[in-house]
Amino acid sequence: MTPMMSASLPARPASHAENFSLRDFLPLPDQGFAEQVETFSRHYRAAAEAGATLYMREIQGPADAEVRVLDPLTGQVRPMIMLGSNNYLGLTNHPRVKEAVKAAIDEFGVGCGGPPLLNGTSRLHRELESRLAALKGAEDCVLFTSGFLTNLGWMGALMRPQDVVIYDELSHASLFDALKLTRCRSQFFRHNDLAELAQILTATRTRAPKANIVVSVEGVYSMDGDLAPLPALRALCDQHGAWLMVDDAHGTGVMGAGGAGTSAHFHTPVEVNMGTFSKSFGTVGGFLTGSRALIDYMRFFARSHMFSAALPHPVVATVLAGLDVMADEPWRQEKLHANADRLAAGLRGLGLDVNYESAIIPLIVPVAVDLRLLTRRIHEEGLFVNAIEAPAVPADRQRLRLSLMATHTEAHLARAIEVIGAVGREVGLVSGP
């Protein structure tokens, strides 16, 4: 990867961007594979046994607003309120979705047995592509087996060594891995910093007046829940002859009329619109929408599409049924945002500083507060939350990442506020009685 950097700009994305590896932070020996992996395993298991980590908690039953968890601290199965899921619309356990999956299995079986270009395209795949294109207001759509592979796919297909990607520093890990594989020229800009982006675009056009440029952003950023300023980004791209790419993994189903996403929310067209099925649709997979010419190109040049087996029919049926529910039950999107407002108001009532624009609420925890103790105590009180600590975010921006669902009840949210308040007072996050 050849960086394109001005002397006045930072040399690499901030440490809280998703371009890190634990290798950078946990010293590992150089003697051999066995010692390397054993060193990390000992480190991780010691922390887990001490109750300092709460990763890979085993959920028994459907992923819903309330879940049954095999508690790693007690070995007992107990109910917990889920505030750590991307199942924003609550579709993972929807009766209509489950019935559609059963019907698809009866008609099509469980898989295609091949890649999309050969024998992996069915009537269901065609229908889903058509409906996703319509949802996004695009001419066509292509499916991938994961959101991660979608980002690897579009960049590997489109970008050549002489082309340029200019990306927000808080982009997803898949974007950073795609850059490594593509080896195109690239430059990041500080998060949502339009002035810096304009400077980079101007400098890039001066050096390479005929270069193909893509500005890559996320519609909704997963750690802060804030939005990319798409209208201003669109104007800058038009001014400098660049394409705009939006990773709308956390925006599809959440933002815009009918859940059409962040581009629809801002009424702003983009050349490349990416989404996943692992958030609002509650399953797995990814997709790109765009012009018919772009999607024709992607089908044959995106290697992660062409050389992967097609999405299984049950997954495709899940998303199709989810689109039906989104259309027929618009209250879900409305309730999702109402729930976010309700939780945020309750947290502010505790004296906590809360800022959000979507269904993700970051609760920043000062460095003086023991985040792991806070998370453990919240877990013990029956609230399932995700703690995000360095290096995933800067040490002074450690947080609880709270994710809302349309199926959370007022009682769920009231209990969450009660727990965060009580435990927060114990550990010094919340002051006062």
What labels would you give this structure?
Aspartate Aminotransferase, domain 1, alpha/beta, 433 residues, 14 strands, seven-stranded mixed β-sheet, disordered N terminus, 2 domains, four-stranded mixed β-sheet, 40% helix, Aspartate Aminotransferase, domain 2, 14 helices
Task: Give a verbal description of the structure.
The structure is a single chain. With 433 residues, this protein is α/β, with parallel strands linked by helices. It folds into 2 domains: 50-82 and 330-427, Aspartate Aminotransferase, domain 1; 95-328, 3-Layer(aba) Sandwich (Aspartate Aminotransferase, domain 2). Helices cover 40% and strands 15% of the residues. It contains 14 helices and 14 strands. The chain has helices spanning 33-49, 95-108, 123-136, 147-158, 173-182, 194-207, 230-240, 262-266, 292-301, 303-306, 313-328, 331-349, 371-380, 410-427; strands at 58-60, 66-70, 77-82, 140-144, 164-168, 185-189, 213-218, 243-247, 272-276, 286-290, 360-364, 383-384, 386-388, 399-403. The protein has a 7-stranded mixed beta sheet. Helix 2 (95-108) runs antiparallel to helix 11 and helix 3 (123-136) runs parallel beside helix 11 (313-328). It is globular, with a radius of gyration of 22 Å. The relative contact order is 0.15.
What is this entry, summarized?
With 433 residues, the protein is an alpha/beta fold. The protein contains 14 helices and 14 strands.
- Rg (C-alpha, Å): 22 Å
Q: What is the number of independent domains?
A: 2
> How much helicity do the residues have?
40-55%
**How many individual β-strands?**
14
Distance between the termini: 54 Å
pLDDT averaged residue by residue? 92
> CATH superfamily of the largest domain, please?
Type I PLP-dependent aspartate aminotransferase-like (Major domain)
Report the uncertain regions: 1-11
Count of separate DSSP helical elements: 14
Q: Quick one: overall form?
A: globular
